[in-house]
Amino acid sequence: MDRNIVIPGQLLSEKKEMAGPGTYVKDGNIYSLLYGVANFKGRVSVVPFSGKYIPSRKDFIIVKVIDVTPSNWIMETGSPYDGLLHVSEFPKRVDSSEMRKFMDIGDSVVVRVKDVSKAMKVELSMREQGSKVLRQGRIIEVMPAKVPRVIGHGGSMVSILKKESNCDVFVGKNGRIWINGRDNDMDRLTTAIEMIESESHISGLTDKVGIFLRGGPEGTESSDEEQLVDEEVAGVSLEDDDVTEETSRKVDVLLENDPEGTD
Amino acid sequence: MSDKPEKFIDENGLRLDGRRVDEIRPMTVEMGVLSRADGSCYLEWGNNKVLAAVYGPRELHPRRLQRPSEALVRYRYNMAAFSVEDRIRPGPSRRSTEISKVSGEAFEPVVMKQFYPGAVIDVFAEVLQADAGTRTAAINAATLALVDAGIPMKGLVASCAVGKVDGQLVLDLNKPEDNYGDADLPIAMTEDGEITLLQMDGNLTADEIAKGIEMARKGCEQIFAIQKEALLSKFGTTDEEELLKEAELQAEVATSEDETEDVEVVSEVVSEVALEDEDDELKDEVDEDLELQDEGEAFTDDEVEDTSDEAEDLFGEDVSEFEINEGTESEGDSSSEPEGAESDEDEGEKNE
Asked: Quick one: signal sequence residues (chain A) (predicted)?
C-alpha cells in the first residue's frame, strides 16, 4: 500500500535516508511521530489528522492585533506563539506615534511570516503582495489540518467557493478564512465551509459543495434560494449530529443524564 | 465497603471477579469525546471510568515556567468527588499531586517536547469512577488523548499494575485485592518496554518484582493492542475515507513542496493530481481501484502520461501564489495573474 493511516511509533520503513516530515529515525528504521496518513511516495512522511498551527516561513496567515508597542504590532497568530510586525514591515512609512491609526488592537490582518527563530520568535511582514488590513467581511476558523482540503487540488475548492458564492475568499494557513460579500452569500459560504470541515472525508466533496452553493438553477428569486439553502442547512446539521456528536453525547449523557442532548 | 474476603483466589485459580491471575479487566476506549479539547479520550477499565483531555501546545503563563528549548508537559490527575463511595474532598490532595507528577513523567521519553519551545501541553485526567488502578487507567487514557491532539510522539505509553494476594502475583488489581492485598506495583512503559513509571505499595521480594515486571509487560502489550485498535478504527477502515485523507495529504504536499521546485517532487505531485482527477471523474470506480491497489496504481501511471500537461498546469499555480491573487483581486486589481482561466471565469460570474 502506498499510503495508510498510521499511529505514533509505527514502523514505516527500513531506509533511514528516506525519512521526511512527521517521522523519526531509530536504529536505522523510520517510525511515525504522528497520528495521520503516511505517504510513501518519495520520502516517507506523515500528515497529521489534527494539531495546532505552527508558524513557518513564507506562510500567509490571518492574525489579530493584540498589542501595539512603540515599534511593533503584536499579533495573535492562532498558534502557541505570538507574532511581531515591526513598523518597517508595514507597506507605508509609519511614524511610531501614529501606529494605532493604521492598525489598532482587534484588527485582523493578512500577513506573511517573514521568519521564525529557533526560540519561536515569529516575525511577520506586510511588504508582500496580498497583505492587507481586513476592514470588512467575516473570518471563519477551521482546523489548520483541514486547510488543504478547503483550498483543494490546485485551488479547485477555493475557486468553486468564490465562483458559486460571489464572495471574496482568502484562506490563511493558520486555519482562518476571510470571506467578503453580501450577507446572504456569506451565510451560505459559511455553511459550505463548515460542510467541508465536517465532511472532509467524503468523496466528490468539491462537486457537492458546488451543488450546495448553487442551491438550484442560477438567477432564481432570492427567496427561493433562501428556502433551498435552509433545507440544505437542515440536512447538513442532521448529518453532523449523526457523525460528530454521537461520541460527545455519550459523555454528556454520562455526566448529566439529561435528555437535552438528544434533541 | 466489603470486608476482607477469606480467599482471593479460589481452588480453580480464578479471582473474585472470575479472572485468571494474568488477565486484565475488560477495557473500552472512545476517542475525541470532548469537542472543545484539542484531544480527548474516555476510557473504561473494569469499573474505572476515566476522562482525559489534552490542550495545546499553547502559550504558557506564567512566563517564568516557560522552557526556552522545549515544551512543558503539565499533567493533572484528579478524582471527582463522586468517584468513590465516600465523597472525597475536591481539589488537589497529597496523593493526587504525587500521582500527577509521576504520571506526567511517564510521558517524558515519548512526547517530542523540543518541537514546541516555550509552549505548554496540558493533560487533564479526571477519574469519574474509581475502582483500583485509576492512575494506570488515567495514563492509558492520556496517551490516546495526546495522540488525538496531534502531539508528535515516539510511541504510545501503556500502564498496568501487578499485585500480590494470597501470596501469589496477580495482574491488574481490582478493588478488594487493592484494599486487602499484600502489595500493589503500578508500572507504565513505552512500546519498547522502557519503564517510565514504577511505584510500589506493600512488600515484594526482589524475585517477585522481577516476575511482576514481566507480568506487567504482558499486560501492557494487551493494552497497546487495545489502544492501537481504537486509533485505527476512529477514522474507520473504509477505503473511501482513507482515499480522501490521502487527497488532503496530497494537497498539503503540493503546497509545502512547491517552493522547493524539486523536479522529482513535481512529477510525483503530477501523478497525484492525476489520481485526484480520476477520483473526481470516476468516483464510482475509485473504491474498486483502492481495493485492487496494484491495478489502481497501474491505471494511475497510465493516466499520468495523458494528463501530465493538464496536471502540470494545475500544479504550476502554486497554491500560495493563488492566495496572493485572491488578495489582490479582492482589492479590485483586475490584472489577472497566472491562473487566467479560473480568474476569468470568476470575473465573468461577477459581471453577470
From this structure: none
